[in-house]
Amino acid sequence: MMNKVHILLLSMFLASTSSAIFARNAVDVLAQDYAFPNKINGFPEKLSDFKGLEIKKFKTSDQVNIAYWEAGKGTPLVFIPGWSANGAEFINIIYLLSKHYHVYVIDPRNQGLSDQVDYGSRISRLSMDLKEFLDHNKLEKANLIGWSMGASIIWGYIDLFGTDKINKLAFIDEPVSIYAHADWTEERRLNLGAMTTSPERMIAAFTKNEPTNQLVVDMNVFVRYQVNDSLYFQNSEEFAQTVIQNSPEKMSAVLFDHATNNWEDVIKYKINVPTAIFTGIYSNNVQSQKWMNSMIKHSKLFIYDDEHADHFLAFKDPIKFSKDLGNFIEAKEN
C-alpha cells in the first residue's frame, strides 16, 4: 500500500511529465537530446542543433490532445503523415523547408506524440482533426501536403469542408482506393491503385506480420522500406524509433476504414486548387498517380526515377523533394 510520501512523489512526477509534454522546445518535450547516427553535411548532427523546432499540442472537440511539430516563419506548409508515421520522421524535411516556410507536421491521433484513445479511428474524424488544427492555428490559407494515408485525410477534409482554406495541395504516393472490388476491370484497379482484395488480410500483414501472398495484398511497400540505403532515411527512421513509442493495437484501429474508402469522386469533382503529385518508378502506384494527374486540373506530376524513387521518396531524398515542393509552392499559376 502506498503511503503519503509515495503518493506525493508520484503526483510530483506526473505533474512534471505533464508539463514537459506540453512544453514547446523539442528537446524539452522529448526530455532528451538526440545524436543522429550519420553525420551529413548541412544537416544537424544532434537534435539541439535544430534551433527553433517546437512541439505543441491542442485539444480537439472530442477531447484528444493532438501533437504537432513546428518550425520556421512565413507561408504555412502543413504536412499530414501516413499511417503509423509522425513528425519525427519528417525531421529532415522540416529542417530544410523551415528555412523558407512556416512548417507544421501533425501527429494523427494514436500516432506519434498525440493521445492514444479508443475512439475516433476513422478517416472522417482525422479529417475533422485537421480542420480543428487549421482553426486552432488560425490558418486561413495553408498549403496541405499528405503522404500516404495523410493524403486520404486531406481528401476527407476536402469532401467535408471544401478548399476555401487551401492554397495549394501536394500528395505523395497514395492510392485512390486501397481495396480492389471484385467487379472492377484491371484497368480501373490500376487507375485507382487498389492493392488488396481483403482488408482483413492486409491489416494482419501490416500490424502482425502475418503471412500473405501478392494476389491478396501487395507488399511492395514493405520490400521498399527495407531498401534502407539512404543516410537521410536512416537518420529520420532511427530518430523516430528512439523518441516515439506507438501502440500497434491503437494504430491498427483506423486501417479498416482507411482501406475501404474510395476517393474517386473527390479526385474527379472536388479538387480545384493547384496540386502536386509525387511518385517514383519503384512504387506500384505510378498508374494511379498518372490517373489522378489526368483528373485534377492544374496538377503537376513528379515521377522520380532514381534509386530512392519509391513510397518513401520524400524521406530518402529530402533535398530533391523539398526543392521540388518549394518550386511548386512558389510557382505563379496562369
UniProtKB/TrEMBL annotation:
Domain AB hydrolase-1: 76-209
Family matches, as Gene3D superfamilies: alpha/beta hydrolase (3.40.50.1820)
Region forming the signal peptide: 1-23
Gene Ontology, cellular component aspect: membrane
Molecular function terms, GO-annotated: hydrolase activity
Pfam families linked to this entry: Abhydrolase_1 (PF00561)
Protein name: Alpha/beta hydrolase
Organism: Acinetobacter populi
Keyword terms: Hydrolase, Signal
Top-level lineage group: Bacteria
Transmembrane segments annotated in the record for this chain: none
Database matches in InterPro entries: AB_hydrolase_1 (IPR000073), AB_hydrolase_fold (IPR029058), AB_hydrolase_sf (IPR050266)
